[in-house]
Amino acid sequence: VQLQASGGGLVHAGGSLRLSCTAAGVPFSGYTVAWFRQIQGKGREFVAAIRWTGGATYYANSVKGRFTLFKNNAETTVDLQMNSLKPEDTAVYSCATGRPIVSSISSASMYYYWGQGTLVTVSS
After folding, report:
1. Could you give the CA distance from residue 65 to residue 101 in angstroms, rounded to a whole number?
2. SS3 of 9-54
3. Gap between the Cα atoms of 118 and 111, Å rounded
4. Which of 38, 47, 67, 87 sits a CA distance of 20 to 30 A from 105?
5. What is the CA radius of gyration of the chain?
6. pLDDT (tens digit, 0 to 9) for every residue of the chain, 124 residues total?
């Protein structure tokens, strides 16, 4: 499975961006798709995840109410709509897919396919 993340860029605080994670090779059906972010010099931080079957979503407390996940019916794309962006949201955002259990859904080690990151920069 190859994942492609796109949509990053530079935005002012309070603005919005929409990231896309597209799969090539295997549809997302049956998988969980997650977004993680990483600030230079720090570890990966869980952002959000969606279980394709059933559509349950999970968000980090730091983004809850501001970020929303969307999936398309073709089972190949998951978007992360990011609103009310803050400077502390600045990071490289990566998408990943796997089959974690719910209690481990925020653990990066539970995901075995990763896309390259896309940089999000929020200026103050």
Report:
1. 23
2. EEEECCCCEEEEEEEECCCCCCCEEEEEEECCCCCEEEEEEEECCC
3. 18
4. 87
5. 13
6. 789 999 999 999 999 999 999 998 778 888 999 999 999 889 999 999 999 988 999 999 999 999 999 998 777 899 999 999 999 999 999 999 999 999 999 999 999 999 999 999 999 9
